[in-house]
Amino acid sequence: MRILIVEDDPNLNRQLCEAVADAGYVVDRAFDGEEGHFLGDTEPYDAVVLDVGLPKMDGISVLERWRRDGRKMPVLILTARDRWSDKVSGIDAGADDYVTKPFHIEEVMARVRALIRRAAGHASSEINCGPLRLDTRASKATVNGTPLKLTSHEYRLLAYLMHHRGKIVSRTQLIEHLYDQDFDRDSNTIEVFVGRLRRKIGLDLIETVRGLGYRMNDADAGV
Description:
By secondary structure, the protein is α/β, with parallel strands linked by helices.
């Protein structure tokens, strides 16, 4: 999963990016509205945390442009506590949720997780594929209750496939959502990570769809 943080305060930007990275997500950052708009308009994100009071272009304008151009990623806006009008404007502009400043980072992360789950059609913080379980709150996966020892890249790949279980996900889509904009992207690494995941999971859940990509089978997941 790939998240964009658009916040002009350096310390808050850093704290948010660290929290997002610690939760197992890939994170890109921007410090003003113009840069944030450009990234959101040209890169695929699973969620965006967008401050309303930004230099160069305010957050509401950024969001309005994204929605006008058909960008549908979930957006969480950050507003000042005494600016209720920002909340109304943000929701009307297409925001999916909001948090008022000052806030606890944990609340932002909980709301981001919820936005990502809902966008993929999941209501619970736990996603199951038969005996394979993903706990999005703890950023951990288990098989029959036994924890899987995964690298950060393996966890990101597994999380993306499980969020989109039953759907074919292309290699290009995986690369775009598992690596930040500065990463040297190589589609061959996806095959390596898929192979490692299959061995660690020990179950025939990840299907290779020839010429199209991969699919996390959900036949035994009760859906």
